[in-house]
Design brief:
- The chain is mainly β and 298 residues long.
- It has helices at 9-23, 33-42, 44-49, 54-58; strands spanning 84-91, 99-109, 112-122, 126-140, 143-156, 161-175, 180-187, 205-214, 218-227, 231-242, 246-254, 258-268, 271-280, 284-294.
- Helix 1 crosses helix 2.
- The radius of gyration is 19 Å and the shape is globular.
- 41% of the residues are buried.
Length: 298
C-alpha cells in the first residue's frame, strides 16, 4: 500500500479495512484505525489532518492567494499587521477519532509579522502533532514573502512507536491596488522525512494561485496544486459578503475525484467566526470551526 499511487487509495481502503485487523497491529484496537492506517500511508496527516483551517476548507483550498490578515496557517507570505489569537477544531468524515484541535497567534516583529500554531490530531492510541512558526515580510506595498518551519511528531501506542520530523515552507504573494492577487507556495521542497526506521517522506506540494479580491465584498480564486510532483488537482473558490457582516463561501476541487465545499464567516468588532464544510465524494463530510480575536484597532 505504501508504494502504490494514491489513485488506488479507495482499493487500499478496502484492503486495509478487511485485512488490517489480521496483519497490522496498528489496526487491532479499533475498527476506525483502518482509516488511520490509510492516512499514514499517504502522508495526509501532515498535509491535511493538521490543517483545520475553515477558510481553506470552505474555498476548496484556494486560499494560497487569499490575502487573509488572520488565519491558522495559510501561506507563509502573511498580510497581517495586528496581533491576534485564535483556536480551531475540525472533524474529518464525521469520525471523532479523526478530530484536530489547534491554537494560533501572531504579532508584529522584526519589521515583519511572526505567527505560531500548535495542532493535535487523533487520540491517545494514535496521535500526531505539529508546531509551526511563520515569519512574513512585506518586501514592497504590493509584494510579501515568508517562510515557515514545521515540527512534526506522531505516536502509535499499539506498537510503542514514535517519530519526529522537520520541514519548511516558502511562499510569495502579490496583491495589486486594483484587487488582483497571485501567489506561489512551496510545501516541503527539500522532501524531508521522518527520523525513524521507516523514513517515511513528508508530502511535498507546489501551489500556484491567482484571484480577484475586494475586502469585505467578494473573492474569486483558482489554484493549481502539484502534489508530491506526481499528481495534480485544480481548485476554484469564491466568497461573497452580505452587508460586510456575513460571508458566504464555496468551492470545487477537481482531481482524481470531484469534491465540493462551502462555509460561512462573520465579524463582530474585533472577533471573527469561521466555519467550513467539505464533501468528499467517497468518505463523506468534514467540518472545521474557528474563532479569532484581534488586538488593537477594530
Amino acid at each position: 500500500i505504501k508504494k502504490s499511487h494514491s489513485v488506488y487509495w479507495p482499493v487500499n481502503l478496502f484492503v486495509v479495512t478487511y485485512l488490517g485487523n489480521t496483519y497490522n497491529p496498528i489496526l487491532m484496537a479499533k475498527p476506525v484505525y483502518c482509516l488511520f492506517g490509510l492516512l499514514l500511508n499517504y502522508g495526509l496527516l501532515a498535509q491535511e489532518g493538521l490543517d483545520p483551517d475553515p477558510l481553506s476548507m470552505a474555498v476548496s483550498g484556494t486560499a494560497v492567494c487569499y490575502p487573509a490578515e488572520i488565519g491558522l496557517l495559510g501561506i507563509p507570505a502573511f498580510n497581517s499587521e495586528l496581533p491576534y489569537a485564535g483556536m480551531a477544531y475540525s472533524n474529518r468524515f464525521l469520525i471523532s477519532d479523526l478530530s484536530t484541535v489547534a491554537v494560533c497567534g501572531g504579532l508584529p516583529s522584526w519589521g515583519g509579522f511572526s505567527s505560531f500554531a500548535l495542532s493535535y490530531f487523533g487520540t491517545g492510541d494514535y496521535n500526531q502533532s505539529r508546531v509551526a512558526y511563520t515569519f512574513g515580510y512585506r518586501l514592497f506595498p504590493w509584494l510579501s514573502a515568508g517562510i515557515r518551519i514545521n515540527g512534526y511528531r506522531y505516536e502509535v501506542q499499539a506498537v510503542n512507536r514514535n517519530a519526529w520530523a522537520l520541514s519548511g515552507d516558502i511562499g510569495m504573494q502579490l496583491q495589486t491596488p486594483e484587487g488582483w492577487t497571485g501567489a506561489i507556495n512551496l510545501v516541503n521542497p527539500n522532501r524531508s522525512r521522518y527520523y525513524s526506521d521507516s523514513g517515511q517522506s513528508l508530502p511535498s506540494e507546489l501551489r500556484v494561485g491567482t484571484g480577484w479580491y475586494q475586502n469585505r465584498e467578494y473573492y474569486l480564486g483558482v489554484q493549481f496544486n502539484w502534489i508530491d510532483y506526481s499528481r495534480f488537482n485544480l481548485s476554484f473558490g469564491a466568497e461573497y459578503w452580505i452587508q460586510k457582516v456575513i460571508a458566504i463561501r464555496g468551492g470545487i476541487a477537481a482531481g482524481q475525484q470531484l469534491n465540493y465545499s462551502f462555509g460561512l464567516a462573520t465579524v463582530y468588532q474585533c472577533t471573527r467566526f469561521e466555519m467550513g464544510f467539505q464533501k468528499h465524494c467517497i468518505l463523506g463530510m468534514s467540518s472545521a470551526l474557528a474563532v479569532y480575536q484581534t488586538f488593537g484597532k477594530q
